[in-house]
Amino acid sequence: MMHIIDLITKKRDGHTLNQEEISFLIHNYTQGKIPDYQMSAFLMATYFNQMTDEEATFLALAMRDSGDSIDLSSIKGIKVDKHSTGGVGDKVTLILGPLLASLGVKFAKMSGRGLGHTGGTIDKLESIPGYQVEIKVEDFIQQVKDIGIAIVGQSGDVAPADKKLYALRDVTATVDVIPLIASSIMSKKLASGADAIVLDVKVGHGAFMKTEEEAVKLAKLMVEIGRLAGKQMTAILTGMDEPLGHKIGNGLEVFEAIETLHGKGPKDLVEVTVEIGAHLLLDAKIESDFKRAKERLNQALKDESAFLKFVELVKAQHGDVSVLYHPESLLSEKVEQVIALSDGYIMDINALDIGKAAMRLGAGRETKEDKVLLDVGVDLHQKIGSKVKKGDVLATLYVRDKGIEEAKELILNAITIGQEHKTLQLIKKTIK
Ligand code: URA
């Protein structure tokens, strides 16, 4: 007979748990048979003593098996998915999905909502009036068969163990533990049913992983977990030293995604989207040459085929497509500006604080129950390396009536103007 106290003791003393023990732990915790205080002790012991790659894999599998797995096997071809570890201004999914689907890739995606300073694809899509994020699994599958793409919220019963555990980690200072993050993310990816997955692991002050060394560790572990579970895996490390693109906030990000789908996107956003897309085009066996894959993706952004696929997606999920042709309606009419106080180059834009500013304006949630405002956010006019003069507009804020002064101050302090002309490397590493 296994006892939870023995498993806590084992982890506390630096030993490793086997698959049966980890399954016992997760199964009984999900069933409510292990109380939060004992699981908290186990999590804290894991914080200090970490887990082996094998233990993290067993944990991911046990959490996957705690709920439903989506069976996508009736959809012909290779199904792909991507995941970002969370950043500021990261609207890649909104562009990548239609872009890949326009080239014949099957994109069956379950996305999340934002929490804290990071946004979530599902909140962003809800800024399109009428867009349905909750769809029955059969309809989700049928839509991918019909038009090659669906982007929906995570169904209630995917990895319930992770849901419960994540909420506990959030309040016990045990979120930032690499094996726990890796198994949490991968449990949901494995349950979502895709064959090939690209992970975009963010590095920098706007991300969970602040250093490249930590990010590589997380990326390698997730790739390993996915591969052991039979998936085709790639991870790329990308910089989150400044927000991705210019716009942060739900409707603002849909606006920027639409511009990008018209071939007029910001360079960094296009670069990350095309890089991930090229890996997935190869994985889906639609293209065999990486360079050629990138060319095809760029072409589909220029010739409107990606945009038209986005229109199809929105229509299929009951959204108001007229908004896609008049995206300015996604933005609040009330604006404020943040002005440069000196001349020089933009040397740093603290993505975390920009994300917080958007949150204070109402674009994000402080608690899970908060409702987000869909038309507020930050439009950054400058990127790191831009030259500015005193009096230039650094950012336009789309606002309602909350958080304006606090957001302005956060943004002003987040942007460092100095004499050094920096250039950033956006795509730092690829891990296969
Ligand atoms: N995202 C997740 O889904 N889980 C984590 O643990 C961290 C980020």
Secondary structure elements and pairings:
Layout: H1 4-12, H2 19-30, H3 36-49, H4 53-64, E1 79-84, H5 92-102, E2 106-111, H6 121-125, H7 137-147, E3 149-153, H8 160-170, H9 178-191, E4 196-203, H10 212-228, E5 232-239, E6 247-248, H11 250-261, H12 267-283, H13 290-302, H14 305-316, H15 322-325, E7 334-339, E8 344-349, H16 351-360, E9 377-380, E10 387-388, E11 393-399, H17 404-414, E12 415-418, E13 427-431
Parallel strand pairs: 1-2, 1-4, 2-3, 4-5
Antiparallel strand pairs: 5-13, 6-9, 7-11, 8-10, 8-12, 9-11
The protein binds uracil (URA).
Low-confidence stretches: none
The name of the CATH superfamily of the largest domain reads: Nucleoside phosphorylase/phosphoribosyltransferase catalytic domain
Q: What spatial order of strands do you see in the largest sheet?
A: 3-2-1-4-5-13
CATH class category of the largest domain? Alpha Beta
Strand content: 15-25%
Q: CATH topology of the largest domain, which one? A: Pyrimidine Nucleoside Phosphorylase, Chain A, domain 2
Query: Ligands in the structure?
Result: uracil
Number of strands: 13
Given the structure, what is the number of helices? 17
Structural class: alpha/beta
What share of residues is helical? 40-55%
- Let me know the largest β-sheet: 6 strands, mixed
> Would you identify the CATH architecture of the largest domain?
3-Layer(aba) Sandwich
Q: N- to C-terminal separation?
A: 40 Å
Using only C-alpha atoms, the radius of gyration works out to 22 Å
The run of helices and strands is HHHHEHEHHEHHEHEEHHHHHEEHEEEHEE
